[in-house]
Each structure stands twice: as C-alpha cells, then as structure tokens.
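Troubleshooting: if your tokenizer reports a length mismatch, compare against these two reference records.
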Amino acid sequence: MKIKRILVGILLILVATAIGGYIYYSSEIKTVVDSNSSDKELIVINAGTSRVDIVKKLVNDGFIKNEIVGIAYVYVNNLNLQAGEYHISKSQSLEEILNHIHEGEVKKKEEIKVTFIEGKRIPDYAKVISEKFPNYTYEEVLAKFKDRDYAKKLIASHSILDDEILDSEIYYPLEGYLYPDTYSFFTDATLEDIIEKLVTTMEQKLSKYNQNIEDRGLTYHELLSAASIVEMEGTNATNRAKVSQVIYKRLSIGMNLGMDVTTYYAVQKEMKEPLTKQDLASTSKYNTRLMSYLGLPVGPICSPSMESIIATLNPSDTDYIYFYASKTGEIKFTANYSEFLQFIREG
C-alpha cells in the first residue's frame, strides 16, 4: 500500500512537471510583441555562425524570448539554420522564425552596376543616380548634394573632409570628393549609401598618398581643387603633369591661374558653349580668369581621376607658365608669352 502511494505521488509529480513544462514552453514560444504588429526588421546571419549562436542572436535582438527553449526546438526538430539576410517580425512566434531561417527564405537583393565618369560634375552624377535608381528624382538627388547639414555629418566621419567644403560660395560641398569608378549597389540602396561609398573610396585611394600630400603642404581640398583643373585641362598623364607644373608655377609667382575650365564651372556652362565677356568677368570664387582673383578656385570643379591626382602630386620638371590647346587637340606649353600668343594665332 505504501509503495502504491509512492508511485501515485511520483506519477502526480511527473504529470504536474509535464503540465508545467508545457505551459512554460507554450509561453516562451509565443510572440515577443502583440501579434497584430506586422513591422519586419532586417537580421543578418553571417556564414559560419553556429545554430546556438544564431538562437542567442535572436534572443539578444529581441525576436524570441528564451534561449534554452530556442536551442531545444532547433535540436529536437533538427533544424539547419542558414546564413543570409532575413526580414522577420517580433510578432512572429519562435517556431515561425526558426522554421523561416531553417528553410532559407532569404530576401534576395538585386545588384546593379553604376559607372561614374571622371571629369564630370555633381549634376552629371545626380543624373546618373536618378536614372539608375528610379525611386529618386534628379531634383531630390541634387538637393542631397547641396545639403550642408548632411555634409557636416560626413565631415565627422571622413578624414578627407573638413569645413573648407562648407564655404558659402561652394555650389556642392562634395564636388571633387566622389571617386569616379564603376560600383555595385543594391537596387534599394539609399542616397546616403551611394554617396558614402563614393566618398569612402576616394578616402581609401588618397590614403596611399598621404605622405606625398603632406610633403607638398597641401590640404585634401587644395589637392582635389588643383587635380580637378588638371583633369579638365589635360588629356593624358604627360600633359597633365605639365598642367600641374603650370598651376604651381603661377601660384608661386602670384599670377592668376586664368583657366577657362574654372570659368565654365563658375557660370555652370557646358564646355561646348562659348564664354562671354560677362562670363569672364564673373566674381565667383571659382572663376580664375578674373584678373584680380589669385589662387586656386574655392573648390574642385569636377571629380578628378587618379591619373590627375597623381599628376598634381608629381608635376613635370619643367618651367612653363602658359599652355594652349590647339584645334588638333595638341596641348602646347611655353614659358614665353610671345610664343603663347603665337600658339593662339595659329589656332
């Protein structure tokens, strides 16, 4: 009789434990938030992450309640949790979330190639972005490039940017700081994603030349301002190095740069259009054709190529003061003003 009572007691304990365990399990697999909520969040699971660590991440990120229950569910059901990017909701149950990751229902993202060409201005880049990313209008992209508050945020996180780009007479703070290249972007990339990638790439490219930049006593802004002129005036590495030399020479003797390409930028004309007397007299701090304006323009006038940046850091060992682009496309250099006038007459 006593043994029977003990067995009944043990049975009752087991039943109570089973019921308690079931109630606990049922509670812990429920949704973290109200099931009426449908907001989904992105969670990234890196390749090589163990099943236990995936469950821990889900708990830490607030998607499921209980690590022990989650791990038990994974092993009891032999789930193979897969790496990838998932959009899941805290209104989904533990079972729904873990089975979703087990099935590998990854949100596939399309990628596109986007090419930004050297020697182009920010309005050109804005056009490329608006054409490749239909969610953004040209006006919207251009407004982002003009946004000085946004530029200030970038200054805080990029060593190549400083307050020089915030000068009130600069048209676009990031002009010249966007590295021209072909990039891969997700089709749902934000404007910030796109711009950040171009600025970061320029920063990475310039980092290799930091000592050279320092040795020349240049700021990044001065370097890119000069390199953008070299880009527009030169056509190959050799004559770009000579254009670079002319710039340094004129700066050293207190002579205005007198570069037409800066006037085109100052008045926002395309290079194929003729410059008027009014254009040449523009008081814009970009216009180096204005006789009273000495020094580099207030900022870069395009996105320079790496070839132009290198030419700016390594000017030719010459002593030219003038150059002229002939009708044949040849760029002629001289230190003699009379010879320069002869170049012009010959056309």
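Reference record two:
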Amino acid sequence: MRTIAIMNNKGGVGKTVTAINLADILTREHGKRVVLGDCDGQCNLTQFYVPDFDTSEDASLDTLMCGLASCYEEVLLPLTDKLSLIPASDGLYDVDISALDGKEDHTVDMRCLIDIRDNLIEDEAADFFILDCPPGFTASAVSALLAADEVVIPLTIDGFSFRGMAALLRQLASMRKSNWRLKRAAVLITQYRNADVVSQGEQLLRSNGKIDIYKQVIRRTDKVPESTIDGSPIWQYSPGSAAARDYRAWVRELLGEEAAHE
C-alpha cells in the first residue's frame, strides 16, 4: 500500500482537488482501492463527498486523534466499492490547541495516522491511503507526514509559492529523521497557463536539480472550480477538459511501471 500526503504550506494551490482526482482516477481507471483521509479542519474534502456530514453526531479524524475511537473502522465512510473516506471536522482546530496545551487530559495521538496506515496494510484493505493536508504544520499534517511514504506538493507558478515550497522542503528534510519511510517528495505544477511568466518560472524550477518535479503539469481551466461546485471529480464532470486529461496522464506517471503493465 502506498501512503501519499498531499501538502503545501500555501493555500489555493489545488491540494484537495488533486486528492479528489487522484482518488477518482485510481479507482475508476486503474481499479485501485483507495482510502482518503481529510486532515484539514476546513473539511473541504469531507464536504465534497458528504455535504450533510454532521460533525456533532458523526466520528471523524479528530475523534481518533483524541483517543475517542478505538479503531479506524469506527470513522471510515464507504463512498463506493473501492473508495472510502476518513472525514474531518473543525474539531481538528481543537486538536491543534490541545497539542500545544501539553496537559495530560489533552493528549493528542500524533501516531494516529501511522496506526491507521499499519492497520490498513494488515487488513489488506487498500492499495492507496491518500491524505489531504491543510496549509501549515498542524497536528494532523504532522501526523500525516509521519505516516507517509511520499509527498505530493501541488504548486502554482508564483513567487509566494516558490518561497513556501522551499520552506516545506526544508521541513520535510527534517521530517525524514522521524519517518524513514518517507522516500519521495515531488512537486506537481498546477493551474498552468500559457504565459511567459509561467513558462519562465517552470524553467527556473526544473533547472534546480535539488527539486523532484513531475513531468506532467495540470493546466488551468474553469472546469475545475465548476466540478467542485457540481460535486464531481473532473473526469466525470468534463472528461475532455485539459485538466481531466492532465490528471489522468499524471496518475499514469505516478503509477510508473505499474500503469505500463496494466
């Protein structure tokens, strides 16, 4: 099983959209079993799949992190026969406060997602565990990075994103001391458009031999925000759109030889 954290310290770069479309293409086109984990207190991933999710009644990731659920099955929501979701609630913000508090009665399980990963592997319950992280090193983001085998870093071409990416790469290098499984962190260029500043920025980024970058880029199209309003992955909403074609090509790149042998 591959555990992938989708992370960038900067918001608005397409983390949740990437998680949604990665999961959709893996399940529909490649027949993979996927568990999505919503690690963001904004709950965008959860609201996309379960608009009526009741945070006051239903268990979610913060329930597990606070030790109020005994196993991941208590919070797992089956969405299709191959796709399931560990939902989030805004209680993750309380988890962050508790983690900073340090009081014994406010214990936060930072190994929570490691335990879920290991249980999914032991139960042979999934081929991919995909974790949609918030911007910034929150308690849930750190838990996700401790559990991850690899990190996908969605990145738009602008100066703010470049600086955020540099900081994130430094933090990930430090995280490897605590997570020996973390083998790869690679940039996925999103919201790509045909403009000189973007092509020059891409060239500059790719000329830096220290940064691992996917060959495939995701082009900007209005179909992407439309698909989130519709509540559908881009391949279902607009299969012929540039972004749909790009995400499918990127997933084949991510699968590598595995996709070539399908």
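Descriptive notes for reference record two:
- The domain at 2-260 is CATH 3.40.50.300 (Rossmann fold).
- The radius of gyration is 18 Å.
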